[in-house]
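Researcher: Next entry: Response regulator transcription factor (Nocardioides bizhenqiangii).
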Amino acid sequence: MINVLIADDQGMIRAGLRSLLEQDSEICVVGEAADGLDAVTCARRMSPDVVLMDIRMPELDGIEATRRLLSERRETRVLMLTTFDLDEYVFDALRAGASGFLLKDAPAEDLVDAVHVLARGDALLAPAVTRRVIELFATTPVPTAPRELALLSPRELEVLRLLATGRSNAEIAENLFVSDATVKTHVSSVLSKLGIRDRVQAVIYAYEAGLVRPG
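Model: Predicted structure:
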């Protein structure tokens, strides 16, 4: 069972999301929060697997709420809910640790699928969001590579570079002439050595470290 917490300052939105999610027998909505502070408190008490987090909320916005929540519960996945696919706060939310983005007007099946994706430990980014992140890095000076990169083997560095270009495990396996299982092992090792949560955070890390550049 996937335990989900819904955080949104609009009661009708929360009710709608709950109704959609509860149609799936594998999802249980354990609670609702009307603002960021309430979301952090509820997550602390309810230990959800996935939190649907609105970006703009009173008391504490969704970005800071995500940062605080994940500082206490690294295993929880946060799916940011936004009205616009190019929301101005996309990058800040990803830096705070969000594992994915979803538009509020997305089809019901997309919402349910997204919860399952995050619950598996994977990440979810719409192409438009990915483009925005890359565009931001295109205007950022190349930084000094962090020391953690030295912990990675040459093959793990290759895997991280390919992850950062948006390739799936199957595509990485084909590129490196190895099995999907081997790629999965490498990805897990990269995340563990760098102390990052998922593929989205790996992409951000690779760009910030200067390991890859847009284009």
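Model: Note for the record: Residues 1 and 26 are 5 Å apart (CA to CA).
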